[in-house]
C-alpha cells in the first residue's frame, strides 16, 4: 500500500508541474512589465493588454481543453502544453517589437489554460477520496512554487545585471534583463515534457473509452486490488447511467438539476479573481514601488510574497482533508477582506510632497527644472501627484522615473502595506487558491466534468484577465487606496455566499457527491 501511495504522489507531482509552468509563465511578467513598457513605449492600456492577454487566451483554451482531452487523453494534451510553454518562452524573450511580444505571450495562454484545467482533473481521477484534497492541491502548490520561482529569478537576473562580471556582460544580462526573465522558463518546460513520459493514462478516461483491461491495470498502480475493483465498478455504474445519451453539451450545465453546483462553481471561480490576487502577483514590484521603496526593494518584497504564498499553500494542503474545504474558505476569505481594508487604509493615509532637498538624489537624466512648479506642493493622494508629474515631465519621462519620484516625495507607513499584502496572500493561499480547484474537481458529475470545469475555468480566467488588464489604469485613475478597497468589498460579499450556500465535500466519493448535489 505504501508503494502505491508513493507512486500516486510521484505521478501527481509530475502532472502538477504544469501548474508550476502556469504560475511561472503568468507571474514572470511582474518583473518584466516595467522594462518592456519602456522598451516598446507602451501606454497603460497596452501594458494591461500585455499582462492580461495571456489570461484572455487561457480562458478560451479552457473552453476546449476538456473536450479535446476527452478525445485524445489528458496526458497527450499536457505534453502539447509543455511544447507550447517552450515555444512561448523563447518567442517572447526574443520578440523585437510589441506585436510579436504580445503574440507569443498569447500563445503561452494556450498552455496555461489547458494545464490549469487538465492537471487537477487528472489528479482527481487517480487519487483515493481520503487524500484527494491533498493530491489535487499539488497543482496549486506547484502554481505557487512557479510564482515564487518567477519572483526569485526576476530578482536574481536584475541583480546580475548590476554586476561587472565578464560573463554577465557577454551574455547581455544587464541590457536584456527582461528577455532573460522570460526565456529561462524554457528549461522547466522541457523537463515537464520529459517527465510526462512516465505518467500513465487516466484510468477513468480509459474506462470512458472502453479500455477496461488497461484501466484496471493502471488503477492498481494507485490503490489496492479491492479498492480498484470498487472504483472501477463505481465509474462504470456512472457511465452506464449515461449510456446511450448524447455527449453532454455546454447547455446541459444550465439545466435545473445542475443549478446548485453551477452557482457554487461560478461564484467561487469569480470570487477567487475579483478579490485581486493576480493584481498582486502580476504587479507586485509595481505595487511595492508605490510605497516608496524603490525598484530593488520592490523586487525583494515580491520574493517574500512568493515565499508566504508557498508556506501557506503547504499549510492548506496539510489541513484541507482534516478541517475540510468550507472551514478553510470561511477563514481565508475573512482574512482577505480584513487585509484588503488594511492596504486601502495604508494608501489612503499617504501624502506626497517633493521638496527641494530631495531633488539632488534624483537621477541625472531627470530634468529637475521642469519639476520646480510642483516642488513644495503637498498632494493628498497618489493620483493627483502622478498627474502633476506627467504634466511637468511628460508621460514618457514620468513613467520611466515614477518609482524614484514617488520614493522622493511619499510620506506613509510602508510596513502597514507590506503586512497587508502578506496577510492577504496568506489568507488566499490557505483558502481560495487551492480549495477552488479541489471543489471544481469534486462538484461536477463525471459525464459533464470536462465541459463543466472548462466553463467555470473560462469564467474564472476571463475575470482574472479583466482584473489584470484594468489594474494599471486603476492605479493611475482611481488610485491605490480605492482599488484595494473595492477588492475588500467583493471579499465580504463572497464570504456571505460561502456561509450560505457552499457545502462540505471532504471524505466523500465523487459519485456520492453527485447524488448529494445534483437533483434528479
Characterization of the model:
The structure is a single chain. A 3-stranded antiparallel beta sheet has the order 2-1-3. It has helices spanning 2-15, 17-27, 29-39, 44-72, 74-94, 98-126, 132-161, 166-171, 177-183, 186-195, 203-208, 212-222, 225-241, 259-274, 277-282, 284-289, 295-319, 325-348, 382-393, 395-400, 402-409, 414-429, 432-443, 446-477, 479-501, 510-517, and strands spanning 351-353, 378-379, 410-411. It contains 26 helices and 3 strands. The longest helix has 32 residues, at 446-477. Among the domains are: 1-199, MFS general substrate transporter like domains (Growth Hormone, Chain: A, Up-down Bundle), CATH 1.20.1250; 351-411, no CATH class. The protein is an all-alpha fold and 520 residues long.
CATH architecture call of the domain at 1-199? Up-down Bundle
Radius of gyration of CA atoms, rounded to a whole number: 24 Å
Secondary-structure element order, N to C: HHHHHHHHHHHHHHHHHHEEHHHEHHHHH
What is the percentage of strand-forming residues?
Answer: under 5%
CATH class identity of the domain at 1-199: Mainly Alpha
Name the CATH superfamily assignment of the domain at 1-199: MFS general substrate transporter like domains
Morphology call:
globular
Number of helices: 26
Number of strand elements: 3
Q: Order of strands side by side in the largest beta sheet? A: 2-1-3
Helix content: over 70%
Distance from N terminus to C terminus (CA atoms, Å) equals 37 Å
At CATH level 3, the topology of the domain at 1-199 is Growth Hormone, Chain: A
Overall pLDDT score: 79
Amino acid at each position: 500500500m505504501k508503494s502505491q501511495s508513493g507512486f500516486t504522489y510521484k505521478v501527481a507531482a509530475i502532472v502538477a508541474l504544469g501548474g508550476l509552468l502556469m504560475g511561472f509563465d503568468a507571474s514572470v511578467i511582474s518583473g518584466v512589465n516595467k522594462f518592456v513598457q519602456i522598451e516598446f513605449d507602451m501606454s497603460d492600456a497596452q501594458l494591461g493588454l500585455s499582462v492580461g492577454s495571456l489570461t484572455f487566451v487561457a480562458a478560451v483554451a479552457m473552453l476546449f481543453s476538456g473536450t479535446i482531452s476527452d478525445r485524445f487523453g489528458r496526458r497527450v494534451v499536457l505534453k502539447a502544453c509543455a511544447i507550447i510553454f517552450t515555444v512561448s518562452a523563447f518567442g517572447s524573450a526574443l520578440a523585437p517589437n510589441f506585436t510579436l511580444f504580445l503574440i507569443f505571450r498569447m500563445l503561452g495562454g494556450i498552455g496555461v489554460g489547458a494545464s490549469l484545467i487538465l492537471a487537477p482533473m487528472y489528479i482527481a481521477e487517480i487519487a483515493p477520496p481520503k487524500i484527494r484534497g491533498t493530491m489535487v492541491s499539488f497543482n496549486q502548490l506547484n502554481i505557487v512554487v512557479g510564482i515564487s520561482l518567477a519572483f526569485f529569478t526576476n530578482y536574481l537576473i536584475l541583480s546580475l545585471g548590476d554586476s561587472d562580471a565578464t560573463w554577465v556582460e557577454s551574455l547581455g544580462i544587464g541590457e536584456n534583463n527582461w528577455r532573460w526573465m522570460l526565456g529561462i522558463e524554457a528549461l522547466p518546460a522541457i523537463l515537464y515534457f520529459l517527465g510526462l513520459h512516465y505518467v500513465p493514462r487516466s484510468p477513468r478516461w480509459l474506462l470512458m473509452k472502453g479500455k477496461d483491461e488497461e484501466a484496471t491495470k493502471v488503477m492498481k498502480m494507485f490503490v489496492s486490488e479491492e479498492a480498484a475493483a470498487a472504483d472501477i465498478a463505481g465509474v462504470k455504474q456512472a457511465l452506464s447511467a449515461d449510456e446511450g445519451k448524447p455527449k453532454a453539451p455546454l447547455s446541459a450545465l444550465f439545466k435545473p438539476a445542475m443549478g446548485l453546483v453551477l452557482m457554487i462553481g461560478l461564484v467561487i471561480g469569480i470570487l477567487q479573481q475579483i478579490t485581486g490576487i493576480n493584481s498582486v502577483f502580476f504587479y507586485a514590484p509595481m505595487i511595492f514601488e508605490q510605497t516608496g521603496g524603490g525598484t530593488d526593494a520592490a523586487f525583494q518584497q515580491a520574493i517574500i510574497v512568493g515565499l508566504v504564498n508557498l508556506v501557506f499553500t503547504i499549510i492548506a494542503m496539510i489541513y484541507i482533508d482534516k478541517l475540510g474545504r468550507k472551514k478553510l474558505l470561511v477563514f481565508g476569505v475573512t482574512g482577505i477582506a480584513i487585509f484588503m481594508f488594511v492596504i486601502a487604509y495604508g494608501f489612503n493615509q499617504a501624502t506626497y510632497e517633493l521638496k527641494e532637498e530631495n531633488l539632488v538624489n534624483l537621477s541625472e537624466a531627470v530634468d529637475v527644472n521642469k519639476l520646480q512648479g510642483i516642488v513644495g506642493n503637498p498632494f493628498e493622494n497618489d493620483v493627483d501627484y502622478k498627474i502633476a508629474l506627467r504634466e511637468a515631465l511628460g508621460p514618457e519621462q514620468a513613467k520611466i522615473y515614477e518609482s524614484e519620484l514617488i520614493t522622493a516625495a511619499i510620506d506613509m507607513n510602508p510596513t502597514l502595506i507590506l503586512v497587508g499584502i502578506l496577510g492577504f496572500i496568506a489568507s488566499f493561499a490557505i483558502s481560495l487558491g487551492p480549495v477552488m480547484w479541489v471543489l471544481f474537481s469534486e462538484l461536477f458529475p463525471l459525464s459533464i466534468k470536462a465541459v463543466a470545469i472548462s466553463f467555470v475555468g473560462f469564467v474564472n480566467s476571463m475575470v482574472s484577465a479583466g482584473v489584470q488588464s484594468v489594474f494599471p489604469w486603476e492605479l493611475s485613475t482611481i488610485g491605490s487606496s480605492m482599488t484595494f478597497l473595492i477588492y475588500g468589498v467583493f471579499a465580504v460579499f463572497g464570504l456571505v455566499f460561502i456561509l450560505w450556500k457552499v457545502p462540505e465535500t471532504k471524505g466523500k466519493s465523487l459519485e456520492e457527491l453527485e447524488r448529494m448535489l445534483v437533483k434528479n
